[in-house]
Amino acid sequence: MQTGVNRRATKREQTRENILIAARKCFNAQGYDGTSTREIAREAGVAEGTIFSHFPTKEELLISSVGDHLADAIKQGLHTMEPEWCFVDKLMHIASYRFAQIALQPGLWQVILQQLVFSPRKGAVKELMRGSGLIDAVMRLIEDAQLDGELNPAIEPEAIHKTVIALFLFTIHEHVGAENYDCEDMCATLRDLLDTQIRGIWLRRPEMAA
């Protein structure tokens, strides 16, 4: 049986979730500048002040709304992958869940590109990825693949991680720019980029300037 404290905590958590769902819907439909916290509050069925009791700023609300969404995709991907799959297949499996979300709400990712990815505020994207669990999930896949001899152990996991995330962001940026939100097409683009990394682009080691 729930106590009064537990009931209040459950209600607060449900209110927070309702606000995030409303925020995603409004940002997706109207963009960042076109969406007011008053509109989000009306969509969520709460007072505008309630939003700020959960999220101090509109940007924090955006980060949380997308971060929680991304976290759901990562959890689903991790829980449904097969342990014997290769690194690329595991990575693509997680990405496919995220691409499916983007296909359903492409306007939301346009907001992320505009407000966070290309924002002058330092650390916004990393905050989003770390809070959603994406950084930890990909780093674990990389470290496991290095231990299994699948990835080069001489390369720092952080460097591999940055490369993977760069390819992921490029894929989304390219498809958002072309207004092609088909999940299978996005997966095909990312796999092509990963295959290029696997094969390598150098026929011989270049003599680079210092």
Kindly list the characteristics that best describe this protein:
mainly alpha, 0% strand, globular, 210 residues, single chain
Descriptive account of the structure:
This protein is mainly α. The protein has 10 helices and no strands. The chain has helices at residues 4-30, 37-44, 48-54, 58-80, 87-104, 106-117, 124-132, 134-147, 157-177, 183-199. Helix 4 packs across helix 6 and helix 5 runs antiparallel to helix 10 (183-199).
What count of helical segments does DSSP give?
10
The averaged pLDDT comes out at 89
Query: Which value, in Å, is the CA radius of gyration?
Result: 20 Å
Show unreliable segments: none
By DSSP, the count of extended strands is: 0
Strand content: under 5%
- Sequence of secondary-structure elements: HHHHHHHHHH
As a percent range, the share of helical residues equals over 70%
Helix/strand/pairing class, anyone? mainly alpha
What shape does the CA trace take? Answer: globular
> What's the end-to-end separation, in Å?
68 Å
Query: What oligomeric state do the depicted chains represent?
Result: single chain
What is the topology?
Layout: H1 4-30, H2 37-44, H3 48-54, H4 58-80, H5 87-104, H6 106-117, H7 124-132, H8 134-147, H9 157-177, H10 183-199
Quick structural gist:
With 210 residues, the chain is an all-alpha fold. The protein has 10 helices and no strands.
